[in-house]
Amino acid sequence: MNPAKVVRAQVKTLTDLPNVGKATASDLQLLGIHQPEQLAGQDPYQLYLTLCEITGVRHDPCVIDVFMAITRFVDGEAPQPWWHFTDERKKLYSV
């Protein structure tokens, strides 16, 4: 969902989260995450590495940015577009 349209009180499903569409929701389900609250306290980098391991594919590193956006949102931060986290990811993690 577009981060500007996210209303925290109305987030009930994965696709209600900022930046999450059907493909990302499917990836999260592969990780055993079926409800937004399951993202609380999760490490976005570990989610990415686990997703790559499960699928046997090296996913685009921008997936980390999306995981950063949604884990931070669930942990209480304002909704942000995924690209808001790109510079931070590039500084902390090079894949």
Automatic annotation (TrEMBL):
InterPro entries: Cdd1 (IPR021725)
Top-rank lineage group of the source organism: Bacteria
Pfam families on file: Cdd1
Protein name in the entry: Helix-hairpin-helix domain-containing protein
Organism listed in the record: Shewanella avicenniae
